UniProtKB/TrEMBL annotation:
Zn(2+) binds at Q259, H262, D361, H420. Its cofactor is Zn(2+). GO terms for molecular function: histidinol dehydrogenase activity; NAD binding; zinc ion binding. This is Histidinol dehydrogenase.
């Protein structure tokens, strides 16, 4: 694994490469995705069937074949191993409990002059969840996307997932059953995003689309934003690790690989203040790689997009990591809570050697749909508020408009909006 010292003459160049990890030329992709979206808008289900045959390699003979029945979900749930069933329920309960703490409340405030101001929090009517299913299926992503919508009170949850060769992952179906998903469809990629954004004869138009996906899915979400709301535009998985001399190289190495095995484009970056730890971790990465089931993918990721940076001190290490703003950040130091106030930008922060990133992926409770490619500087993890909207509440009494109305009218006059000003003054003149 590549080791870089901040004192090296070419460090700035190497670090810039790390910061540009998420930059992709999407011009060609955008053109392709725009074409896909246009076909869905114009031809609906017929375009979906054509895209499925082209990309997922199976022929859809009827509209009904696009749908996944609740009976199939229940059958899959009944047939899974009892320990696996228990694990899914444990994850469900913990994720639900965490997200219930995020629920904002409607409120009203009463002023002395009779003004009532407030905010009404309301769930969207329909939420569309995109769940990946290409190189691997992710039932955990179904839980992480569906549960916040459930907690928010969304009435209808629509799921789309690709099904190569018309094969649906049984564990994903079981997760759908646990979440009481009423509508699920065997549609993936940009086609699914377009179908949920605009609606077809079979797939309903939704209000918000959430969930991770490849560059085509991310680009489609970007292009339909405005027609619907979206959670974020996420890229390949990534992990950042801060470590000092107390960290165990075996832990560090396997945690870096926990993201590398996702995707050849995944990024695994460690910053340490101990050169010996850097060298030992690099050796351990190679030792682990030989025995991974997804060795080829993980090796490509580590070789192309992995790095260990040796910083002069922890202050420099934290500064660099804040610039990287990783999706997942592990703090593997002797006193991780001491560093927490200095960490500004990360999708999720994992503190201490007993908190590996996979704990957050499955069972801890916080959401694993996280901002990538430094967007943690301005995006938050998927949460309940992604499925809510807020309406302002305003009620003026006669005393209130008498007190504040002329100031309002003057501002309207200044902007040249005569009807605005008159709308207020006609009330001021009324006895």
């Amino acid at each position: 694994m590549k080791i870089i010292k901040t004192t090296a003459s070419n460090f700035d160049e190497e670090f810039e490469n790390i910061l540009s990890r998420a930059k992709t030329d999407i011009k060609e992709v955008s053109a392709i995705v725009t074409g896909i979206i246009d076909e869905i808008v114009q031809s609906g289900n017929e375009a979906l069937k054509s895209h499925i045959q082209k990309f997922d390699k199976w022929e859809v003979k009827s509209d009904e074949e696009l749908m996944i029945s609740q009976e199939d979900m229940k059958k899959a749930y009944d047939n899974i191993d009892e320990n696996l069933k228990k694990a899914l329920h444990t994850a469900y309960d913990r994720i639900k409990k965490y997200h219930e703490k995020q629920l904002p409340k409607s409120w009203v405030d009463f002023e002395k002059n009779g003004t009532i101001l407030g905010q009404k929090v309301t769930p969207v009517d329909k939420a569309g969840l995109y769940i990946p299913g290409g190189k691997a299926a992710y039932p955990s992503s179904l839980l992480m996307n569906a549960i916040p919508a459930i907690v928010a009170g969304v009435e209808e949850i629509v799921v789309c997932t690709p099904t190569p060769n018309n094969e649906v992952n049984e564990l994903l179906l079981a997760a759908c059953h646990i979440c009481n998903v009423s509508k699920a469809f065997k549609v993936g990629g940009a086609s699914a995003i377009a179908a949920m954004a605009y609606g077809t004869k079979t797939i309903p138009k939704v209000d918000v689309i959430t969930g991770p996906g490849n560059i085509f899915v991310a680009t489609a979400k970007k292009l339909v934003f405005g027609e619907v709301n979206i959670d974020m535009i996420a890229g390949p998985s990534e992990i950042g690790v801060l470590s000092d001399s107390s960290a165990k190289p075996k832990y560090l190495a396997i945690d870096l690989l926990s993201q590398a095995e996702h995707d050849e484009m995944a990024s695994s970056i460690m910053i340490t203040v101990d050169e010996n730890i850097a060298n030992e971790t690099s050796v351990e990465v190679e030792n682990y790689l030989k025995n991974l089931s997804r060795e080829k993918i993980a090796r490509k990721s580590i070789e192309d997009r992995g790095a260990i940076i040796v910083a002069k001190d922890m202050e420099e290490a934290i500064k660099l990591m804040n610039e990287i703003a990783p999706e997942h950040l592990e703090v593997m130091t002797s006193n991780p809570f001491e560093l927490l106030p200095k960490i500004k930008h990360a999708g999720a922060i994992f503190l201490g050697e007993n908190t590996p990133e996979p704990i957050g992926d499955y069972i801890a409770g916080p959401n694993h749909t996280l901002p990538t490619g430094s967007t943690a500087k301005f995006y938050s993890p998927l949460n309940v508020e992604n499925f809510l909207k807020k309406s302002s509440i305003i009620n003026f009494s006669k005393n209130a408009i008498d007190e504040l109305g002329e100031a309002c009218a003057i501002l309207a006059d200044t902007e040249g909006l005569t009807a605005h000003a008159k709308s207020v003054r006609v009330r001021l003149e009324s006895k």
